[in-house]
Amino acid sequence: MSASVLDVKNVQKIYGKKGESQSHALKGVSLTIEKGEFVGIMGPSGSGKTTLLNVISTLDRPTEGLIEIAGTNITQMKQNQLADFRSQKLGFIFQDFNLLENLTVYENIALPLSLQGVSSKEIVTKVNRVAQTLGIEEILQKYPVQISGGQKQRAAAARALVHDPAILLADEPTGALDSKNAKSLLETMTDLNENHQVSIMMVTHDAFSASYCKRILFIQDGKLYTEIHRTGDRQPFFKQILDVLAELGASHDVH
Amino acid sequence: MLFKLSLSSMRKMMKDYLVLLVGLVISISIFYMFQTLALNSDFTKGNSVISSIQIVFNVGAFLLAFITVFYIFYANSFLLSLRRKELGMYMVLGAKKGKISQILFWETLMMGIASLCIGSIVGIILSSGIGKLLMNLLEISPEGYYPFYVPALWMTWGFFLVLFLITSTINAIRLARATELDLIRAEQQNDTMKRRGIGTIVVALIGVLLVAVGYYALIEIMVLQVLGLIIGAGATTIGTYLIFISLLPVFVQALKKNQQLNDRQLNAFTFAQLRFRVNNLTKVLGTVAMLIALGVGAMAGGLAFQQNVDLISSAQHVYDITLHDPAEEDIQALKNMNVIEQNTYRYKMDDKGYYYVKDDLLAHPPLISTNSIENYSSENKPKRVAEDLPHDGYIMYASQDDRTNLEEVPAEWDQAISTEFMISYEMLKGRTVQIVDRATYEGITGSEHQVLIAQVDDYLNYKPALKAMDQRQKQWIQSSLENEEREVYLSTKYSTYEAVYAFTSGTMFMGFFLGIAFLAMMASCLMFKILSGATRDKDRYMMLRKIGVRQSLLIGSIYKELFLVFVFPALVGLVHVLVGMQMFSFILLDPYVNIWVPTVIFLAIYAIYYYITVRLYQGIVLPKEA
Question: What InterPro entries does this protein's entry cite (chain A) (predicted)?
């Protein structure tokens, strides 16, 4: 696979106005994600990984640098273009699910399609298909308050995928789940990645979750620290991750 | 310590408290303003206009009190919702429940007292402003009306203090009954979707039935009298609430069931928000509908009375001018008018009566009105008296003693003479009116006079001239009364108009006063409720933004949602008004005349206010543009 879905070049993000106390959240980050990759972003609290996710997901603008998603430069877009871009090209999974609790699971999943003016008939087909993939057909007519955390996250994943986005952005997707549900969700994501060619970028601080990725980028103090690739099984990769994290912690102490 | 804490957090939530305070101040100042009118006996008794509609006043005062009670209870539960989370946190940290309840009790009470102080001042300012302005506009003498009126102040303070005490206690009790976790999680609580089964349908049916009964009572008010007013007001009010509690949520649910519609753009979300609103706002929406009905109804009623003045005077009199022995000035004034028809009849007058010549009358038969107040229609055009007078002589206004062998004057001639010729009760005083043949007339020894009746294009164009004519007629009658010195009341078309106008101005004053008061209450009521729930909605709009909904779509959704929230009570309220106006049909010729004026006034106020709410709501829920 050669076509890149995400190209981040020398992105900087500075919070605060000039002349006032500024904080440098990203200090020139560059990365590329190829189509069909499952990439993890890791780093300690305050390393800038959430900021990175926010600028990639177009929710925040980088102060400097270039971000291209599926060949489109998003740094120069207007608000409405960005909104449309989000709704068409991006899929989101958040730690706290971000389901609209006054809509049924079905309506939540259908929302991105409704926004694009897809016909009611087509919506039914697509929602049912994605629900089947994620194993949540049974709960489509329920409200978020009536289902479990694991089911909520699956519903959120279904909403993120229903419109075939270029890339799925996951922000600590297992953060609010118990280990069983977390495992099940990660397996589903792996399945999506391997069997449905969904490109995924997942931000997490949990080594176990990260071990499902194929490649992990480590960020520290707003800069790319290192990256590691998974070559074999998850188990050794997990150890490798822990090693890097330990290294990070050590360098942290030195600072 | 806790008091200090709660004070500082109140300061932080200043914006929310401001909304609450403004709402309370509005309701208090309106209540005060009403009391300055109602309690001020110098004003109500001294002003014949106001005193004649005392019952309308009392009904208004009762309704205002009723709605205020409801409003205050509601506002204080809003206060509780503002403080729940924080007070729960204190409890988790180990503060005693009793202490917390106490804090809330005092907070509620202090809030009430603060708003009472401000409300009284605003009320006094409003009374001297709006009250005087309306009186000026309607030419009511403000004699005896004081914007600063101590009994009204007492009444307001007493009424609201009792209310605040009760609501403070209720708040404290409610807090005491909740657990710590309930309080902390208050904001995360989801909208519970109540299953709506057979119970809802029964409630809806009862609601519709009650409204029907209320409508019937209002329409049949002629028969039911005061009972009709009480049943009508009561049944319609309760029925309205029941309809909003049961029928409306079902309707919104049906809207949502329509898959095609629901799947379009943000509709699923808009309808879900709407469903949440109609479920949560049932009582508020019911209240708003009633306030709209009362507000518009009061204005429409007042205006209808005012507009009916011309109809009432025109229904009774065909001729705009009746002049006995017209003076030179009268003739001159007539020359400046556009006279359509003018007849002059001679008559003789002695101690016993007035004598008209039969041939004169038959030669120029006058017009008479075919309308009456009881049975009015603009189709009923005036008609010319067509009855023949075959006998030698006729008599009317005759007592038993006077009744000679003369015939009774036929009905149409009777009407013509009594309404068009004889313009004052004082003229009759024991005299009869006779129609006699020429020979008899010649033989009568009394003084000879003439009466001129005239119809002009539009008598309202000549008000000053007509007033002067009536003045001269009064003097003329006065002088013919010989030894008696008493006030003479005329019943010419213009005098009728003037008298009814004074009365109806009072009604209109009341109508507009009440109307504006109710509309203002409604305004703060709905705004209050919508804005108090807005922080909860913030997260939802944030989520929608994240998944890529255009700002314009979000704004559109807000407009649509709030529009529907606003439209339901407006529709119900306006239908109430349309039916409710029937209750005036027994005193008004046409209760619906110019009904569009208050409707348009209401719609204008409502639309502006809808726009403001949307804007305020947007400011709270929509994420700021990056």
Answer: AAA+_ATPase (IPR003593), ABC_transporter-like_ATP-bd (IPR003439), MacB-like_ATP-bd (IPR017911), P-loop_NTPase (IPR027417)
